[in-house]
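Notes, p. 3: input format for complexes.
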Amino acid sequence: MEKTSLPVAVIGAGPVGLAAAAHLLERGLEPLVFEAGPTAGAAIEEWRHIRLFSPWRFNIDAAAVRLLEASGWEAPRPTALPYGGELIDNYLAPLAALPALASRLETGARVLAVTRQGMDKTHVRNRDTTPFIVRVLHSDGETRDHTVAAVIDASGTWSTRNPLGTSGLPAIGEEAAAARISSPLPDVAGRDREAFAGKRVLVVGAGHSAANTLLNLAALAKEAPETRILWAIRGASPSKTYGGGDADGLPARGQLGARLRRLVEAGKIELHTGFGISSFKSLDSGVTVGAVDGRTLEADVVVPCTGFRPDLDMLRELRLNLDPAVEAPMELGPLIDPEFHSCGTVPPHGARLLAHPDKDFYIVGMKSYGRAPTFLLATGYEQVRSVAAALAGDREAADTVQLELPETGVCSTDAGTSCDVPATRPAAGAGEAGGESGCCAAPEPVLVAFPPAWPTAAPPTTDT
Ligand SMILES: Cc1cc2nc3c(=O)[nH]c(=O)nc-3n(C[C@H](O)[C@H](O)[C@H](O)COP(=O)(O)OP(=O)(O)OC[C@H]3O[C@@H](n4cnc5c(N)ncnc54)[C@H](O)[C@@H]3O)c2cc1C
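Output follows (464 residues plus flavin-adenine dinucleotide):
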């Protein structure tokens, strides 16, 4: 079969994968979308209780909107800030249900590996013109190989959180204690309440998701007073998480941090600083979490707010060019490295910057940022517009990157994590941790340094 008549595989039906499919269709190319989860937006489904910090206007893709509008869809108010659940219900689900996409989307289809047909990574001859093989575990339990002309990996990073152990490795016993470790952003005061009410909960991490989880746990503890909240951070001080309090130049950060500080000072949250985790010991009654310096903490459940990393295993047979630190495409890495960019200024970029030695293979979306936490959907939408143009042979359009992004992105104190999230949906009966005036009760946008022309539902603030 001619390589050009083959479809283009898209891995993942998150917002960026679906946008990629929409752009490919506009370009006359045939997308074949494999989604591991049961529905489009499966990763966001797990944080549907979290409010996005960017307004609708920047959360929807232009080609996807063109498809949707042709079916009578009405765009949400552009300045409103949706919850993750609303992003799915009002945008991703209707998009995935359009016949043009539904017929090209397979859910319950997990991509296991990508390679070139008939050659491993070491073979170079005719490599560029040889189709790719995408190996997929389908929902019927069968594993099948699919031959495609190109591959766009939009599989995100949600399923590969960073380990809790120090040194980038799981702590000894961490895997065996998996039943005691929650998802990275549990809805502690809502959907997942039962797993947390009245329990000893250890939150690990110093970013915004840790802060928000702690505040919601404090709200939960008001209703279920036996709930004990422990907080372990690797650093010597939580000052970065607290921000500048009332004097903080970024009000939402200051407010969130001030509330957290008050709870810690009041003894409602038990803070353990300098707690680099070295071991987990599972017991019938819970788990003992050991620190490098010999201290131990007992918990029933541990919430890992330690960020995410890309799954590169399935790309092992491809020739990639990744930044050695961030694991983003080589040229993108230095632009987003959280060690140097707490408020990353990310120039617009497209196919050229995202290219790898294996021609016609691209990593896009959240995964394209590797371990860096500052990815924005609008960035991903421009990436896939450019990639689709490149795959269609329209080099000029591919190279004309027109990112309508702020010069500065999302700020983060969570170097190396993706846990920088805004406030969660208010907990019922939220008081100190989730009262009317706090971030948990009235989530605010946490965009930073958007140009004044950008409409936001509230004054721009930052996500530390
Ligand atoms: C809590 C939170 C809040 C955020 N808020 C914002 C915000 O306000 N504004 C903003 O611009 N960005 C925000 N982001 C960052 C980012 O835009 C989102 O993470 C977004 O979901 C990334 O989209 P994506 O399509 O790249 O990846 P995902 O949404 O993670 O989608 C990837 C898809 O691939 C599937 N998949 C994974 N592995 C495989 C496989 N092997 N085979 C097949 N399918 C697979 C997954 O099931 C998933 O459906 C936020 C992130 C988080 C975690």
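The two ends are 51 Å apart (CA to CA).
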